[in-house]
Amino acid sequence: MSNKRKPKFGQNFLVDDNARHAIVDALGDISNRTVLEIGPGHGAITSLLAPRAQRLIALELDHSLAAELTFKFRDQPNVTIVQGDVLETDLAALIPEGTTADVIGNLPYYITSDILLQLFAAGRAGLLNRAVLMMQREVADRLSASPGVKEYGLLAATTQVNAEVDNLFTLPPSAFNPPPDVFSTVLRLHFAPRFEELQVDPAGFDSFLKQIFAQKRKTLHNNLRAASYDPETLAAAWPAEIPPQARAESLALEPLAALYRALAQHPR
Ligand code: SAM
Protein backbone atom coordinates (compact mmCIF):
# COMPACT_ATOMS: atom_id res chain seq x y z
CA MET A 1 0.00 0.00 0.00
CA SER A 2 1.38 3.39 -0.96
CA ASN A 3 0.42 6.60 0.79
CA LYS A 4 2.29 8.63 -1.76
CA ARG A 5 0.11 11.30 -3.29
CA LYS A 6 -0.43 11.10 -7.04
CA PRO A 7 -1.04 14.74 -7.99
CA LYS A 8 -2.36 13.89 -11.44
CA PHE A 9 -5.34 12.13 -9.85
CA GLY A 10 -6.33 15.19 -7.78
CA GLN A 11 -5.56 13.35 -4.55
CA ASN A 12 -6.21 15.50 -1.49
CA PHE A 13 -7.48 13.27 1.27
CA LEU A 14 -10.02 14.52 3.80
CA VAL A 15 -8.67 14.44 7.36
CA ASP A 16 -11.25 16.61 9.17
CA ASP A 17 -13.48 14.24 11.11
CA ASN A 18 -16.42 16.67 11.51
CA ALA A 19 -16.34 17.38 7.78
CA ARG A 20 -16.52 13.74 6.71
CA HIS A 21 -19.51 13.21 9.01
CA ALA A 22 -21.21 16.36 7.72
CA ILE A 23 -20.77 15.26 4.10
CA VAL A 24 -22.29 11.85 4.70
CA ASP A 25 -25.11 13.32 6.85
CA ALA A 26 -25.98 15.66 3.95
CA LEU A 27 -27.10 12.65 1.91
CA GLY A 28 -29.87 11.95 4.46
CA ASP A 29 -31.31 8.49 5.12
CA ILE A 30 -29.58 6.05 2.76
CA SER A 31 -30.66 2.84 4.50
CA ASN A 32 -32.64 1.74 1.44
CA ARG A 33 -30.55 3.50 -1.21
CA THR A 34 -27.85 2.56 -3.70
CA VAL A 35 -25.00 5.03 -3.26
CA LEU A 36 -22.25 5.65 -5.82
CA GLU A 37 -19.08 7.15 -4.42
CA ILE A 38 -16.70 8.86 -6.82
CA GLY A 39 -13.03 8.74 -5.82
CA PRO A 40 -13.09 7.03 -2.40
CA GLY A 41 -9.31 7.44 -1.89
CA HIS A 42 -8.35 5.87 1.45
CA GLY A 43 -12.03 5.62 2.44
CA ALA A 44 -12.58 8.74 4.60
CA ILE A 45 -16.23 8.93 3.48
CA THR A 46 -16.57 5.28 2.40
CA SER A 47 -16.12 3.95 5.92
CA LEU A 48 -19.06 6.07 7.16
CA LEU A 49 -21.25 5.19 4.17
CA ALA A 50 -20.68 1.43 4.34
CA PRO A 51 -22.70 0.77 7.53
CA ARG A 52 -25.46 3.17 6.48
CA ALA A 53 -26.15 2.45 2.80
CA GLN A 54 -28.16 -0.47 1.51
CA ARG A 55 -25.65 -0.80 -1.31
CA LEU A 56 -22.43 1.15 -1.86
CA ILE A 57 -20.45 1.16 -5.10
CA ALA A 58 -17.20 3.12 -4.94
CA LEU A 59 -15.32 3.98 -8.13
CA GLU A 60 -11.58 4.61 -7.76
CA LEU A 61 -9.12 5.21 -10.58
CA ASP A 62 -5.94 4.53 -8.60
CA HIS A 63 -5.15 0.80 -8.67
CA SER A 64 -3.34 0.76 -5.32
CA LEU A 65 -6.14 2.64 -3.52
CA ALA A 66 -8.80 0.40 -5.11
CA ALA A 67 -6.86 -2.67 -3.92
CA GLU A 68 -6.50 -1.19 -0.42
CA LEU A 69 -10.27 -0.56 -0.20
CA THR A 70 -11.21 -3.95 -1.66
CA PHE A 71 -9.22 -5.52 1.18
CA LYS A 72 -10.60 -3.14 3.82
CA PHE A 73 -14.26 -3.81 2.92
CA ARG A 74 -13.85 -7.51 2.06
CA ASP A 75 -16.27 -8.57 4.81
CA GLN A 76 -18.98 -6.05 3.92
CA PRO A 77 -21.14 -7.63 1.21
CA ASN A 78 -23.07 -4.40 0.54
CA VAL A 79 -19.84 -2.65 -0.58
CA THR A 80 -18.37 -3.02 -4.07
CA ILE A 81 -15.11 -1.33 -5.00
CA VAL A 82 -14.70 -0.77 -8.74
CA GLN A 83 -11.30 0.18 -10.12
CA GLY A 84 -11.79 2.48 -13.08
CA ASP A 85 -12.23 5.97 -14.47
CA VAL A 86 -15.62 7.38 -13.54
CA LEU A 87 -15.76 9.22 -16.87
CA GLU A 88 -15.36 5.93 -18.74
CA THR A 89 -17.95 4.15 -16.60
CA ASP A 90 -21.52 3.48 -17.68
CA LEU A 91 -23.33 4.51 -14.50
CA ALA A 92 -26.55 2.86 -15.69
CA ALA A 93 -24.83 -0.53 -15.55
CA LEU A 94 -24.06 -0.04 -11.83
CA ILE A 95 -27.58 0.85 -10.72
CA PRO A 96 -30.15 -1.94 -10.22
CA GLU A 97 -32.78 -1.68 -12.92
CA GLY A 98 -35.89 0.25 -12.02
CA THR A 99 -34.18 2.10 -9.13
CA THR A 100 -32.30 5.36 -8.71
CA ALA A 101 -28.99 5.99 -6.96
CA ASP A 102 -27.50 8.80 -4.88
CA VAL A 103 -24.00 10.05 -5.61
CA ILE A 104 -21.37 11.27 -3.19
CA GLY A 105 -17.80 12.36 -3.72
CA ASN A 106 -14.93 14.53 -2.69
CA LEU A 107 -14.25 15.05 -6.38
CA PRO A 108 -10.93 15.02 -8.18
CA TYR A 109 -11.05 18.75 -8.98
CA TYR A 110 -9.33 18.51 -12.37
CA ILE A 111 -12.38 16.78 -13.90
CA THR A 112 -15.22 18.41 -11.93
CA SER A 113 -17.04 19.81 -14.99
CA ASP A 114 -16.85 16.54 -16.92
CA ILE A 115 -18.20 14.61 -13.93
CA LEU A 116 -21.04 17.10 -13.54
CA LEU A 117 -22.03 16.73 -17.20
CA GLN A 118 -21.95 12.95 -16.80
CA LEU A 119 -24.18 13.18 -13.71
CA PHE A 120 -26.63 15.54 -15.43
CA ALA A 121 -26.97 13.07 -18.31
CA ALA A 122 -27.64 10.27 -15.81
CA GLY A 123 -30.12 12.51 -13.98
CA ARG A 124 -31.99 13.16 -17.23
CA ALA A 125 -32.10 9.42 -17.83
CA GLY A 126 -33.89 9.06 -14.48
CA LEU A 127 -30.99 7.19 -12.84
CA LEU A 128 -30.11 9.60 -10.04
CA ASN A 129 -31.95 11.24 -7.18
CA ARG A 130 -29.44 13.43 -5.40
CA ALA A 131 -25.73 14.08 -5.07
CA VAL A 132 -23.49 15.53 -2.37
CA LEU A 133 -20.29 16.75 -3.98
CA MET A 134 -17.20 18.56 -2.78
CA MET A 135 -15.46 20.78 -5.28
CA GLN A 136 -13.30 23.87 -5.48
CA ARG A 137 -15.15 26.79 -3.84
CA GLU A 138 -15.05 29.01 -6.94
CA VAL A 139 -16.63 26.26 -9.06
CA ALA A 140 -19.34 25.64 -6.45
CA ASP A 141 -20.11 29.37 -6.41
CA ARG A 142 -20.51 29.32 -10.19
CA LEU A 143 -22.88 26.34 -10.09
CA SER A 144 -25.15 27.88 -7.48
CA ALA A 145 -25.09 31.53 -8.70
CA SER A 146 -28.28 33.45 -9.51
CA PRO A 147 -28.74 35.57 -12.65
CA GLY A 148 -27.11 38.99 -12.40
CA VAL A 149 -24.23 38.04 -10.09
CA LYS A 150 -20.77 37.82 -11.62
CA GLU A 151 -20.43 34.05 -11.10
CA TYR A 152 -23.60 33.34 -13.15
CA GLY A 153 -22.89 31.88 -16.58
CA LEU A 154 -22.99 28.69 -18.63
CA LEU A 155 -22.15 26.43 -15.67
CA ALA A 156 -24.96 27.88 -13.51
CA ALA A 157 -27.54 27.72 -16.30
CA THR A 158 -26.54 24.18 -17.30
CA THR A 159 -26.61 23.04 -13.68
CA GLN A 160 -29.87 24.71 -12.77
CA VAL A 161 -31.76 23.35 -15.76
CA ASN A 162 -30.79 19.87 -14.55
CA ALA A 163 -30.88 20.13 -10.77
CA GLU A 164 -31.80 22.16 -7.70
CA VAL A 165 -28.63 23.27 -5.94
CA ASP A 166 -27.92 23.82 -2.21
CA ASN A 167 -24.59 25.34 -1.27
CA LEU A 168 -23.94 23.62 2.09
CA PHE A 169 -20.55 24.51 3.62
CA THR A 170 -16.96 25.45 2.84
CA LEU A 171 -13.76 23.87 4.15
CA PRO A 172 -10.26 25.35 4.39
CA PRO A 173 -7.22 23.65 2.82
CA SER A 174 -6.23 22.40 6.31
CA ALA A 175 -9.15 19.90 6.20
CA PHE A 176 -7.11 17.84 3.72
CA ASN A 177 -3.80 16.07 3.48
CA PRO A 178 -1.98 17.26 1.53
CA PRO A 179 -3.76 20.64 1.66
CA PRO A 180 -4.92 21.85 -1.76
CA ASP A 181 -4.22 25.42 -2.93
CA VAL A 182 -7.92 26.31 -2.79
CA PHE A 183 -10.91 26.30 -0.43
CA SER A 184 -13.49 23.57 -1.00
CA THR A 185 -17.29 23.72 -0.91
CA VAL A 186 -19.84 20.94 -0.46
CA LEU A 187 -22.97 21.21 -2.61
CA ARG A 188 -26.12 19.11 -2.68
CA LEU A 189 -27.86 18.59 -6.00
CA HIS A 190 -31.37 17.29 -6.35
CA PHE A 191 -31.72 16.05 -9.92
CA ALA A 192 -34.89 17.60 -11.30
CA PRO A 193 -34.54 18.28 -15.04
CA ARG A 194 -36.68 21.27 -16.13
CA PHE A 195 -36.69 20.74 -19.91
CA GLU A 196 -40.30 19.57 -20.07
CA GLU A 197 -41.59 22.40 -17.90
CA LEU A 198 -39.61 24.95 -19.97
CA GLN A 199 -40.82 23.26 -23.17
CA VAL A 200 -37.36 22.92 -24.69
CA ASP A 201 -35.61 19.89 -26.10
CA PRO A 202 -32.57 19.03 -23.95
CA ALA A 203 -29.89 18.70 -26.63
CA GLY A 204 -31.04 21.80 -28.52
CA PHE A 205 -31.26 23.91 -25.35
CA ASP A 206 -27.77 22.72 -24.25
CA SER A 207 -26.30 23.98 -27.54
CA PHE A 208 -28.27 27.23 -27.30
CA LEU A 209 -26.88 27.90 -23.79
CA LYS A 210 -23.34 27.37 -25.12
CA GLN A 211 -24.01 29.90 -27.89
CA ILE A 212 -25.53 32.62 -25.71
CA PHE A 213 -22.90 32.37 -22.97
CA ALA A 214 -20.03 32.09 -25.47
CA GLN A 215 -18.63 35.55 -24.81
CA LYS A 216 -19.35 37.26 -21.51
CA ARG A 217 -18.68 40.76 -22.80
CA LYS A 218 -21.15 40.46 -25.65
CA THR A 219 -24.89 41.08 -25.45
CA LEU A 220 -27.22 38.14 -25.92
CA HIS A 221 -28.10 39.55 -29.34
CA ASN A 222 -24.45 39.74 -30.42
CA ASN A 223 -23.66 36.25 -29.19
CA LEU A 224 -26.56 34.98 -31.30
CA ARG A 225 -25.34 37.02 -34.29
CA ALA A 226 -21.94 35.36 -33.81
CA ALA A 227 -23.74 32.00 -33.84
CA SER A 228 -25.04 33.00 -37.30
CA TYR A 229 -28.60 34.04 -36.50
CA ASP A 230 -29.49 36.86 -38.90
CA PRO A 231 -30.86 40.19 -37.57
CA GLU A 232 -34.29 39.71 -39.20
CA THR A 233 -34.80 36.32 -37.51
CA LEU A 234 -33.73 37.78 -34.17
CA ALA A 235 -36.04 40.79 -34.56
CA ALA A 236 -39.00 38.57 -35.47
CA ALA A 237 -38.43 36.11 -32.64
CA TRP A 238 -37.27 38.41 -29.82
CA PRO A 239 -39.64 38.08 -26.81
CA ALA A 240 -40.96 41.41 -25.46
CA GLU A 241 -39.83 40.46 -21.95
CA ILE A 242 -36.12 40.50 -22.91
CA PRO A 243 -34.50 43.97 -23.19
CA PRO A 244 -32.71 44.33 -26.57
CA GLN A 245 -29.31 44.99 -24.91
CA ALA A 246 -29.63 42.21 -22.29
CA ARG A 247 -26.75 39.88 -21.59
CA ALA A 248 -27.46 36.20 -21.06
CA GLU A 249 -25.78 36.59 -17.64
CA SER A 250 -28.67 38.75 -16.43
CA LEU A 251 -31.47 36.37 -17.44
CA ALA A 252 -33.15 33.46 -15.65
CA LEU A 253 -33.91 30.21 -17.42
CA GLU A 254 -37.54 31.10 -18.18
CA PRO A 255 -36.85 34.06 -20.53
CA LEU A 256 -33.93 32.17 -22.08
CA ALA A 257 -36.25 29.26 -22.80
CA ALA A 258 -38.86 31.66 -24.24
CA LEU A 259 -36.21 33.02 -26.64
CA TYR A 260 -35.09 29.50 -27.57
CA ARG A 261 -38.68 28.45 -28.33
CA ALA A 262 -39.35 31.59 -30.37
CA LEU A 263 -36.16 31.11 -32.42
CA ALA A 264 -37.04 27.46 -33.03
CA GLN A 265 -40.18 28.67 -34.81
CA HIS A 266 -38.27 31.01 -37.15
CA PRO A 267 -36.21 29.37 -39.89
CA ARG A 268 -32.62 30.73 -39.92
N1 SAM B 1 -12.73 10.54 -1.01
C1 SAM B 1 -11.35 10.64 -0.57
C2 SAM B 1 -11.25 11.60 0.59
O1 SAM B 1 -12.17 12.40 0.76
O2 SAM B 1 -10.24 11.56 1.30
C3 SAM B 1 -10.40 11.05 -1.72
C4 SAM B 1 -10.74 12.33 -2.42
S1 SAM B 1 -9.51 12.89 -3.57
C5 SAM B 1 -9.91 14.62 -3.65
C6 SAM B 1 -10.13 12.35 -5.17
C7 SAM B 1 -10.06 10.85 -5.40
O3 SAM B 1 -10.55 10.59 -6.73
C8 SAM B 1 -8.69 10.25 -5.34
O4 SAM B 1 -8.73 9.07 -4.57
C9 SAM B 1 -8.34 9.92 -6.81
O5 SAM B 1 -7.46 8.82 -6.95
C10 SAM B 1 -9.71 9.62 -7.37
N2 SAM B 1 -9.84 9.85 -8.83
C11 SAM B 1 -9.17 10.74 -9.60
N3 SAM B 1 -9.57 10.68 -10.86
C12 SAM B 1 -10.56 9.74 -10.91
C13 SAM B 1 -11.36 9.20 -11.96
N4 SAM B 1 -11.25 9.66 -13.21
N5 SAM B 1 -12.26 8.22 -11.68
C14 SAM B 1 -12.37 7.76 -10.39
N6 SAM B 1 -11.63 8.23 -9.36
C15 SAM B 1 -10.74 9.20 -9.61
UniProtKB/TrEMBL annotation:
Entry protein name: Ribosomal RNA small subunit methyltransferase A
Domain of life where this protein originates: Bacteria
Catalytic reactions on record: adenosine(1518)/adenosine(1519) in 16S rRNA + 4 S-adenosyl-L-methionine = N(6)-dimethyladenosine(1518)/N(6)-dimethyladenosine(1519) in 16S rRNA + 4 S-adenosyl-L-homocysteine + 4 H(+)
Similarity comment: Belongs to the class I-like SAM-binding methyltransferase superfamily. rRNA adenine N(6)-methyltransferase family. RsmA subfamily.
Protein EC: 2.1.1.182
Main subcellular location: cytoplasm
Binding site for S-adenosyl-L-methionine: 12, 14, 39, 60, 85, 106
Gene3D superfamilies per UniProt: Ribosomal RNA adenine dimethylase-like, domain 2, Vaccinia Virus protein VP39
Function according to Swiss-Prot or TrEMBL: Specifically dimethylates two adjacent adenosines (A1518 and A1519) in the loop of a conserved hairpin near the 3'-end of 16S rRNA in the 30S particle. May play a critical role in biogenesis of 30S subunits.
Cellular compartment(s): Cytoplasm
Pfam family, one: RrnaAD
GO terms for MF: 16S rRNA (adenine(1518)-N(6)/adenine(1519)-N(6))-dimethyltransferase activity; RNA binding
InterPro entries hit by this protein: KsgA/Erm, rRNA_Ade_diMease-like_C, rRNA_Ade_Mease_Trfase_CS, rRNA_Ade_methylase_Trfase_N, rRNA_adenine_dimethylase, SAM-dependent_MTases_sf
Residue span(s) of domain Ribosomal RNA adenine methylase transferase N-terminal: 19-193
Keywords: Cytoplasm, Methyltransferase, RNA-binding, rRNA processing, S-adenosyl-L-methionine, Transferase
One GO location term (cellular component): cytosol
PROSITE patterns recorded: RRNA_A_DIMETH, SAM_RNA_A_N6_MT
